[in-house]
């Protein structure tokens, strides 16, 4: 049972793309194409169709249903591997490792409407009361009396106005009843102005629905050294491109209802390294691959439509909008362990174990971060909060069996599990892990090329969804449960 012939017949036995893994993980970052014998090339496409529905819950004042917020997601892959000598190999792998595509719809806290306010009812009432009280208390006796006289129609720059002011000031200081009447009238005037300010700010809140779209593209350049037929040591640089867009809308995001962030396409470099071991006689192959994190410093284009609300808290919004700064984004490090072994004639068992360091991943766009620090004390986050973060690392396992039925046909079955990246989790991706089952089928018209297809069905884990302001705590705004996804993949392979 030679691995060169068995692996060629069972190329589709390796797991199809993870498709709906934890956090933003999509492709699974397999290097199986680089470990194929001889010269090899492949190209593939995967389609993910998910149904992620939920219901307002937790801190939400309403209990509305949330329709499917997951959009269909398409991503491609390609690879070429060359074996110029018996001991050296070179390969390039293209994939789209991380991504998201989601949009809310309907009547819920993630879609704006005319009743939205910068804070929830209780918090808004507290803010209104404190603003009125603080503004009134900051007024001097002279200012209060002057405001009351002006409210009676007097012009303080005229003699009549000055006379009325002097009389009122004397009465204010001499009569407690008169003082209380003046204070009540002035406070009512302050309340009117505060209400006008709140109404003006609420009018600036966003319109439309919350949505997110993130794409990444990787080019991995692999250089391999094979001292003998058993060992393969490989490493190389990785070029990654990232771009994205986030629009927050709806009552769930309070002050950030109307926040927009555009991540322009940027590229950065990382690296990978690994080792593979095989015993051709028993179709045994094992590989361990590490991929580094990749760091970006990006000029994210931000807009916070209701930023003027900070003036109600005695802050100057221009200290945020007028402050340039870059946003640090780091895509996570990961480790893949791939195992394969012949278990009987024309049959192999395989497994993939993947770890991704999502626990250390977060996104805090620059102006978003400054604003979160300004309002953080109101939500018990004195150091601010992130737009997106995850509380746990991701672990996933896929295992299955592949079998060669004839010289032209082969297939596989697989079962997969993903831990998720924590719960509660961000409203921009409200699922926690999955279980899945998969089927794959390969047709080889000739020994040197094949067409392989696969399908996976996912039972998505239930999750509580929380905003950035709630992250790190137990509060949440919605629950998502009983959801599923289905993924399709097609791959063409050629040996030369």
Automatic annotation (TrEMBL):
InterPro entries hit by this protein: OMPP1/FadL/TodX
This protein's major location comes to membrane
Q: Where in the cell is it found?
A: Cell outer membrane
Q: Which UniProt keywords apply?
A: Cell outer membrane, Membrane, Signal, Transmembrane, Transmembrane beta strand
Query: What GO cellular component entries does it have?
Result: cell outer membrane
Molecular functions per Gene Ontology: long-chain fatty acid transporting porin activity
Superkingdom classification of source: Bacteria
Annotated family: Belongs to the OmpP1/FadL family.
- Tell me what this protein is called: Long-chain fatty acid transporter
What organism does this protein naturally occur in? Acinetobacter populi
């Amino acid at each position: 049972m030679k691995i060169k012939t068995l692996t060629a017949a069972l190329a589709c036995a390796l797991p199809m793309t993870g498709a709906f893994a934890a956090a933003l993980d999509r492709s699974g970052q397999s290097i199986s194409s680089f470990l194929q014998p001889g010269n090899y090339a492949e190209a593939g496409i995967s389609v993910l169709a998910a149904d992620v529905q939920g219901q307002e819950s937790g801190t939400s004042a309403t209990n509305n249903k949330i329709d499917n917020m997951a959009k269909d997601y398409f991503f491609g892959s390609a690879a070429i591997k060359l074996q110029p000598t018996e001991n050296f190999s070179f390969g390039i792998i293209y994939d789209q490792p991380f991504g998201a595509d989601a949009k809310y719809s309907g009547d819920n806290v993630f879609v704006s409407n005319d009743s939205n306010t910068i804070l929830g009812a209780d918090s808004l009432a507290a803010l209104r009361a404190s603003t009125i009280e603080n503004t009134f208390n900051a007024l001097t006796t002279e200012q209060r009396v002057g405001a009351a006289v002006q409210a009676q129609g007097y012009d303080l720059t005229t003699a009549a106005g000055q006379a009325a002011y002097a009389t009122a000031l004397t009465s204010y200081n001499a009569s407690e009843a008169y003082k209380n009447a003046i204070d009540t009238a002035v406070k009512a005037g302050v309340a009117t102005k505060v209400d006008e300010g709140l109404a003006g700010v609420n009018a600036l809140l966003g319109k439309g629905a919350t949505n997110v779209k993130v794409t990444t593209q990787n080019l991995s350049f692999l250089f391999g050294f094979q001292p003998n037929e058993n060992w393969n040591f490989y490493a190389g640089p990785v070029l990654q491109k990232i771009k994205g867009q986030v629009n927050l809308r709806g009552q769930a995001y309070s002050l950030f209802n109307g926040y927009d962030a555009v991540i322009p396409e940027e590229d950065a470099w990382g690296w990978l390294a690994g080792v593979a071991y095989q015993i051709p006689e028993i179709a045994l192959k094992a590989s361990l691959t590490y991929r580094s994190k990749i760091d970006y410093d990006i000029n994210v284009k931000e807009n916070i439509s209701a930023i003027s609300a900070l003036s109600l808290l005695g802050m100057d919004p221009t200290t945020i909008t007028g402050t340039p700064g870059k946003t640090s984004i780091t895509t996570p490090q990961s480790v893949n362990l791939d195992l394969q072994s012949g278990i009987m004639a024309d049959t192999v068992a395989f497994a993939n174990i993947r770890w991704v360091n999502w626990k250390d991943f977060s996104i805090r766009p620059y102006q978003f971060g400054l604003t979160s620090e300004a309002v953080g004390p109101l939500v018990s986050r004195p150091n601010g909060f992130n737009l997106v973060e995850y509380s746990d690392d991701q672990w996933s396992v896929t295992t299955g069996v592949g079998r060669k039925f004839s010289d032209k046909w082969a297939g596989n079955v697989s079962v997969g599990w993903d831990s998720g990246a924590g719960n509660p989790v961000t409203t921009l991706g409200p699922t926690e892990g999955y279980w899945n089952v998969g089927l794959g089928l390969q047709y080889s018209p000739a020994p040197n090329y094949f067409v392989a297809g696969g399908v996976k069905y996912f039972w998505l884990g239930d999750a509580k969804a929380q905003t950035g302001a709630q992250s790190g705590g137990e509060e949440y705004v919605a629950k998502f449960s009983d959801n599923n996804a289905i993924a399709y993949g097609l791959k063409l392979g050629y040996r030369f």
